[in-house]
Request: fold
Amino acid sequence: MTTPTLVDLRDAWQSGRRSAVELCEEALTAIAQQDAVLGAFNTVIGEAALARAASIDRDRATWAGRPLAGVPVAIKDNLCTRGIRTTASSRILEAFVPPYDATAVAKLQAAGAVIVGKTNCDEFAMGSSNENSAFRPARNPWATDRIPGGSSGGSAVAVAAGMTTLALGSDTGGSIRQPAALCGIVGLKPTYGRVSRYGLLAFASSLDQIGPLTWTVRDAALALSVIAGGDPADATSAPQPVADYLAALTGDVRGLRIGVPTALIDGHHAGVDPDVASKFGAALQTLVARGARLVDIALPNAAAAIPTYYLVATAEASSNLARYDGVRYGYRAPADGRDDLRTMYRRSREQGFGAEVKRRIMLGTYVLSAGYYDAYYLKAQQVRTLIRRDYDEAFAHADVVAMPTSPTPAFRLGERVADPMQMYLADIFTVSANLAGLPAISVPCGFTAAGLPVGLQLTGRHLDEATLLRAADAYERDAGWPEHRPARVTTAAEPA
Amino acid sequence: MPAGFSRAEIERIAALAHLELGDDELDLFARQLGDILDYANQLQQIDTTGVPPTASVLIGDEGERADLAVASLDRDAALANAPDGAADAGFFRVPRVIG
Reply:
């Protein structure tokens, strides 16, 4: 059975075969059937979505030719949506209704997409399992006793479970790619700056990037072509022209040099599961059979990427999250007798933030504090330079770099919550692309013996999403993984 | 570099971060922050002599943008999410600052 892709739904509306209302009703039905179990959405806006779909159907003259006209989409709940509650899965923003749209959201709307809801995530995008949501965990549609990954877990579940064919996520250290890998779909983190961050609730401003989660590489290319581009509202956005990503998907990878950091992947620090290693190796051979060449590369400082990342990201987070103080928006603690400003700040933040967010604010505050700045924060920023140089060196010999996305498949809910360090270590293959600002994509590359999805990660040169997408698409054509879909998860099928 | 944190030190960091942590959290974070920083200390083994820090991965400098006045957020909209907004006066209300 072939399930429609984003491109299919776009074509169906453009040709007049399907109405936007029909597509929207199907998405809402898929959500209604499955989301009590899967927990993909924090907010579903059924009536507003149907009204918007109807207006697109009525005004065909306006919307015909727009790249996503009539197509239902989901938005991670840390992206501002005007008039639609935006919580970042945090109690502190539980009632926040943004007065403006994030630029990426506005671009989707201008392209004719129909937002059906806001997806669950780890609180303020801090986590790798979606278990840090203040509201509820999300569940993996391939095995509902397992995590979907994070932090864009709800976005990955929405796409994997066939609720929408596109969801936006954000990726600070792997938060698009890792859940995409664990849910068996495609997740693309563009080059830092390729997509405007205006309206993204900031976690770590030098690392954050918005990107699409989809079933196919072609769908990711289509989505990126809509949301990419410079933006006057984000001074860190890249003003360079946006390439024609769909035209880049030629299927031709003859002569393409794929760099493989063998020592890193085989090293005991990485802890790569044998099934993951074998699927990764097979994926590389598929690309070789199409004419690509494998090149061994070093990335000597890649093992230091995790401590570097957790110092830089938490330092930036402690600064960014200072804005949640109970004054202009968000939760304010009741006065409780001690009616002074400082107490109000402290109690509001204590009651409004969850444990992982507080842990990271504490760590970031410490590494930026007087006496420790040089030893931790400055040192990490210097190692960050070495990691960037490693990639510069690698790209002198290779056109893309290949690694598994996650060293292990999806783990069980609750398995790692007591040990944050163990959770952090699983980010070994994803964080360095954020530290270096490079584009990276995860594509499905098979299943473990237990039937859990495995992801292949490719990393590209700065602003060279075209080559990255071409390589990923070429692999996908031969591998055919998009035809593998999980069964519908209904409330009746929930395990104990 | 401290291998672990005293409770007093965790309280000091919490005060800097404007967090009023409970007893359980003070003990938990004292242990967990110690564990994380012990792990992060591996960075000290890397020779970074003469290596400049990376604060931004942007390539190229866009220079300054034009100094143009543009419309900003409407005042009522800006106050709409305030826990204690004074819409008539156009203020955010906060507890007393000066005694």
